[in-house]
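Please fill in the sequence for the structure shown.

STRUCTURE ENCODING:
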């Protein structure tokens, strides 16, 4: 029974109990004034009519109890609920109308509050319009920065001095995803995120040393100091990292003196920028090349020694024919060995040079459309690209390939009068075949060879490249072919395809959100080491808001987790793009009753990772944050029972929105997630999915923070202490 209901029943039963006490006291006083005979007659009368008196007392008590309960609800509970709803409207910035009950005066107060709230909303809207107009230029600059960061081909991460990530671009996100030991686990779980520590990826000592070098150069008066280091990741990848400082903006900046102390130079910085390149392949290529050079040097030294000895022996005239033949064999073998070593080195060098040419991932349809526009703008020729497979992604140097296509089309127009060409693109095994097709006169093989080896000239632009150079640059092939049935001919290029991972990365860069919320400069003001975690203000902390879906409600009886979902709150903002969502194979049957609630079927769980793989990944995702959940005792019990088997411990503080709702709204009848969301005007989407519930819980929690502040609850320690005083904190799992 809820605490509000207990108070209502006490209010209802109290009048009856008080009436019984009054009747009993009056009866005792009356009996005390009677004589012996009168007392006996009074007792006989009570014995004969006691049932009537008791029944009358019960009726009167019930009537008084009903009246008392109605009065309690009308004059006590209704004003309290009105006050709680008013606090929601004021502190949580909710705009729905108050549904007031109780007395006419109570409803009148609710109407007045509603009118004030509407006036407030109108004033806020007016102020918002003025602020938007005044800050348009700032937002434009911010948008330009976001666009620049999003389109950069280099990975960029910006951190504050504590190593907390403030900004990162999509290229960095994709690169760190590729570096992850389990990139396919928990879609959306990244190694980096807003507010997370860069030291989860990079060695703290290396970053600190580079930052110290930058500060020292800044103190010496270097205008644009930077530092560089190479480090390895847990997955064995090599990263080259370049660091540049982010200067602090002060009211009256003073020039940095050459004699400035280390503390003064550190104060001039608010953070640092990291630019990262994955050099694993370059390092492997250089190591292989060095090994080949070593083999060539050492092997050639031995071969030259053998050759010299053999030649010297052949100078002697008394050498017999058999010996002379053995020395000739030595010379042939050593020359062959030296030639093979040189050939191997030359082949490796050529392959590395081809691989190092900057090839980009590009959707085939985009390239074909660009080629059509280029041909039609240069020549009196109509071009089309109606036979292009839109699913194909190429890995090409688009500029040089576009020159080659336009050059060939120009030769067709100028020398053969071709008026119409078209492009075809289809996959052919591990390659893509790009055809430049035309109808009309064909040409000789000698003409094709001449076009292939002539320098490319497109309009007024002349390139040192030939078509053959472009083909070799792509490690591809090129030929001319006739289609006699259709009376057509075509030039065909065989080109490399982007890998599936590269296609996914390129698709996310091109078609994803080009203005992602991957930056928050307000975090420069937050230092996670400024105070003990318990004394930190709720609005300053980083949170992981999570939820689990399970096979049942009894973790101690063998029920298992089947889905984990989580999102982040950093700097008072919900970071939807930084989420964790993963199905889990429970290794047990799934009850039918649960499927109707969460919609997860056995087929969906087949082949999914077990909790032994998922829980460590979620533990890493939630590191250095406060955990938040609705009815957190339930979810935490499931996690704690798996900690020992999975080798992790969730020892960070936990907040429960169920308990916090009871703190801020003690008079409300329900504290379910749906009811709380309705009170805060939070839209519920994806209910009974782990990530959907986590997002709703996060939005609700953000609405609660100002209400907690109204009650004098500002820090994490205060919130945990207040939550433990509620009735719901006694529930155990």
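FILLED IN BY: designer on duty
SEQUENCE:
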């Amino acid at each position: 029974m809820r605490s509000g209901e207990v108070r209502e029943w006490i209010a209802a039963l109290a009048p009856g109990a008080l009436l019984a006490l009054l009747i009993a006291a009056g009866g005792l006083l009356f009996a005390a004034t009677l004589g012996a005979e009168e007392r006996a007659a009074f007792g006989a009368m009570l014995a004969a009519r006691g049932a009537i008196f008791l029944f009358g007392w019960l009726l009167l008590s019930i009537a008084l109890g009903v009246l008392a309960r109605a009065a309690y609800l009308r004059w006590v509970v209704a004003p309290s609920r009105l006050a709680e709803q008013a606090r929601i409207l004021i502190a949580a910035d909710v705009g729905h109308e108050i549904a007031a009950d109780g007395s006419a005066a109570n409803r009148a107060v609710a109407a007045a509050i509603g009118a004030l709230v509407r006036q407030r909303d109108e004033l806020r809207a007016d102020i918002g319009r003025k602020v938007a107009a005044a800050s348009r230029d700032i937002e434009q600059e911010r948008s330009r920065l976001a666009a620049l960061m999003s389109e950069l081909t280099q990975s960029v991460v910006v951190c504050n001095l504590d190593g907390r990530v403030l900004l990162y671009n999509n290229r960095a996100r994709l690169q760190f995803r590729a570096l992850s030991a389990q990139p396919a686990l928990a879609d959306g779980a990244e190694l980096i995120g807003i507010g997370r520590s860069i030291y989860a990826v990079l060695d703290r000592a290396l970053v600190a040393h580079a930052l110290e070098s930058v500060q020292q150069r800044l103190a010496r008066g270097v205008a644009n100091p930077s530092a560089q280091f190479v480090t390895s990741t847990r997955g064995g990848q090599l990263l080259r990292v370049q660091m540049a400082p982010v200067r602090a903006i002060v009211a009256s900046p003073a020039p940095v003196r050459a004699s400035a102390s280390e503390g003064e130079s550190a104060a001039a910085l608010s953070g640092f920028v990291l630019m990262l390149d994955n050099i694993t392949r370059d390092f492997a290529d250089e190591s292989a090349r060095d090994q080949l050079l070593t083999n060539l040097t050492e092997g050639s030294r031995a071969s030259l020694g053998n050759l010299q000895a053999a030649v010297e022996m052949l100078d002697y005239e008394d050498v017999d024919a058999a010996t002379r033949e053995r020395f000739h064999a030595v010379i042939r073998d050593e020359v062959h060995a030296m030639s093979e070593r040189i050939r191997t080195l030359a082949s490796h060098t050529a392959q590395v040079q081809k691989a190092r040419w900057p090839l980009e991932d590009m959707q085939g349809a985009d390239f074909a459309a660009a080629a059509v526009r280029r041909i039609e703008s240069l020549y009196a020729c109509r071009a089309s690209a109606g036979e292009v497979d839109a699913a194909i992604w190429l890995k090409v140097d688009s500029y040089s390939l576009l020159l080659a296509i336009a050059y060939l089309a120009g030769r067709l127009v100028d020398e053969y009068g071709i008026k119409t060409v078209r492009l075809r693109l289809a996959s052919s095994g591990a390659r893509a075949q790009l055809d430049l097709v035309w109808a009309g006169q064909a040409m000789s093989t000698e003409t094709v060879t001449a076009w292939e080896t002539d320098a490319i000239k497109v309009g007024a632009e002349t390139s040192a490249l030939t078509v053959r150079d472009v083909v070799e640059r792509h490690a591809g092939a090129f030929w001319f072919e006739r289609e006699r049935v259709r009376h057509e001919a075509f030039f065909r290029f065989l080109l490399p395809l982007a890998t599936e991972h590269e296609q996914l990365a390129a698709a996310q860069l091109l078609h994803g959100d080009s203005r992602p919320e991957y930056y928050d400069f307000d975090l420069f003001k937050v230092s996670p080491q400024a105070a003990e975690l318990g004394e930190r203000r709720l609005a300053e902390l980083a949170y992981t808001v999570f939820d689990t879906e399970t096979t049942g409600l009894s973790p101690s009886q063998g029920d298992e987790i089947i889905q984990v979902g989580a999102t982040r709150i950093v700097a008072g903002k919900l970071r939807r793009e930084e989420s964790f969502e993963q199905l889990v194979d429970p290794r047990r049957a799934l009850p039918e009753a649960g499927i109707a609630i969460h919609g997860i079927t056995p087929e969906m769980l087949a082949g999914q990772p077990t909790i032994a793989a998922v829980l460590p990944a979620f533990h890493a995702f939630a590191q250095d944050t406060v955990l938040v959940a609705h009815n957190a005792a339930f979810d935490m019990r499931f996690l704690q029972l798996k900690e020992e088997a999975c080798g992790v411990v969730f020892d960070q503080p936990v907040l429960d929105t169920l308990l916090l709702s009871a703190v801020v709204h003690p008079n409300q009848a329900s504290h379910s997630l749906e009811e709380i969301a309705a009170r805060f005007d939070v839209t519920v989407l994806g209910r009974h999915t782990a990530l959907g519930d986590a997002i709703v819980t996060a939005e609700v929690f953000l609405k609660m923070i100002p209400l907690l502040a109204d009650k004098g609850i500002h820090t994490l320690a205060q919130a945990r202490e207040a939550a433990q005083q509620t009735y719901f904190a006694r529930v155990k799992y």
